[in-house]
Write a structure and sequence with these properties.
Length: 428
């Protein structure tokens, strides 16, 4: 997808349909806008089915406040206009009522973006906008004041959220998608106790780790049939994980080994919904080739493949229910049901500091018979004989985490599988 050549109206329709498909807005809820190079604000219309929006439905709001289109602009276009007035750097704005963030809006609470590195990198510090009547100039000015202070995210009391982007509406969506996943994790955490975020020093260490560059080699090796097959599998898996809410637009990493020297991995800058086979980055002997830079996990992935020749597929995820256990002191217990125990076997748990400072040890301990590791405030890692097997582990892990969460919500005691039952499983 070439975003640069997409018309603003087409961009708005594409992103609005993604928001609706992710169940992050209702049929008539939410609105988007793009400010073009001529100062015209393209904005979604009022009261139109968001799942079937077409470019002809999108409205142009001119600099003088008049509008052109078949429909009226969203009733909240005043908020968009006021934000653009106070922030000349902003190019796109998104507003919606995603369930978890909206829940926080009723608590008059911001989202804790310190729970894992990508959450903070994408959304920084969110701020609260004081309640105002929807569609009123009072609310427009209160929301704009949050953006004028330098924030790019305003959580509206008892309402929803406004986010902006200095780049385009797709980046605004990526930030929005990540913010909601972050909020789901935080809300889930309270079932197990107080969420445990990273302090500023640990956040700096994480940023430094994931931004450390790999060396680039100026070559493009011959692409074998096996590599082409793996690229297609990686693409299909990343898109599938996104569609099943195991990845967000920008979080989640897939990787597959080509041979003893080379592997493929997700690119650093990506939208998982649109990843194509040729987007994945080839790394050989610690150096990458091509124009795209590999994801920040490439260094750790390289260590794992170097030390474990049987591992041929890896996935990293911050799926929101699994992340409950990475952002609290609650252990992930695999003896919940036979399927979980039979697929994951165990859960190796590490601190973020261990991952950052002793990655070689963690990589050496990765095995296909102990495929699941949970790294506090970082995420879950799955290592397997194939990418397909690693993805199965991810689905089992997240679905089990959801079930554990539901069971805990009852306030009753969970009946975990007994040692005798586990021995029976081991003997199968």
């Amino acid at each position: 997808m070439n975003r640069q050549t997409m018309h603003p109206a087409e961009q708005i329709c594409t992103v609005m349909k993604r928001i609706y498909a992710r169940q992050l807005t209702t049929l008539s809820g939410g609105n988007l806008s793009i400010l073009d190079e001529e100062g015209i604000m393209w904005v979604s219309p009022s009261g139109i089915d968001k799942s079937s929006l077409t470019p002809k439905d999108v409205v142009q709001v001119l600099p003088d406040g008049s509008y052109i289109g078949h429909h009226k602009p969203t009733s909240e276009y005043l908020i968009h206009r006021e934000i653009y007035k106070v922030r000349r750097d902003i190019k796109a704005i998104l507003h919606a009522h995603p369930p978890a963030v909206t829940s926080m809006s009723t608590l008059h609470q911001t989202v804790d973006t310190s729970l894992y590195p990508l959450a903070h990198r994408m959304n920084g510090d969110t701020q609260i906008a004081v309640y105002g009547l929807p569609g009123s100039m009072q609310l427009a000015r209160r929301v704009a004041a949050v953006f004028e202070s330098g924030s790019d995210t305003a959580i509206l009391e008892n309402h929803g959220v406004f986010l902006s982007s200095e780049k385009d509406i797709f980046e605004a969506f990526a930030r929005f998608d990540e913010l909601e996943a972050n909020a789901v994790t935080e809300m889930n955490d309270y079932v197990f106790g107080q969420p445990q975020g990273m302090n500023e020093e640990l956040q700096r260490s994480c940023r430094a780790y994931f931004q450390r560059p790999l060396s680039k080699v100026d070559r493009n090796t011959v692409m074998t049939s096996e590599e082409k097959k793996l690229r297609r599998e990686l693409s299909d898996t990343a898109v599938r994980a996104y569609e099943n809410k195991l990845f967000t637009a920008v979080s989640g990493v897939v990787s597959a080994r080509i041979d003893e020297h080379s592997f493929l991995i997700s690119p650093g800058e990506r939208d998982n919904a649109y990843l194509e086979p040729d987007d994945f980055v080839k790394v050989t002997d610690g150096k990458y080739e091509g124009e795209s830079y590999p994801d920040g996990f490439a260094r750790f992935v390289s260590l794992v493949y170097d030390r474990n020749p049987k591992i041929r597929g890896m996935i990293f995820s911050t799926a929101p229910y699994t992340m409950m256990f990475a952002a609290t002191e609650e252990p992930y217990r695999v003896n919940f049901i036979p399927e979980c125990y039979g697929v994951l076997f165990s859960c190796r748990e590490y601190s973020a500091e261990e991952f950052l400072e002793d990655g070689e040890r963690l990589a050496a301990e990765a095995r296909i018979d102990a495929p699941f590791a949970l790294i506090r405030n970082i995420g879950a890692v799955f290592t397997a004989v194939s990418l397909h097997a690693a993805y199965d582990m991810l689905e089992v892990c997240e679905n089990t985490a959801k079930s554990i969460h539901m069971a805990r919500q009852t306030g009753k005691e969970i009946q975990w599988m007994t040692e005798e039952q586990l021995r029976e499983m081991d003997g199968k």
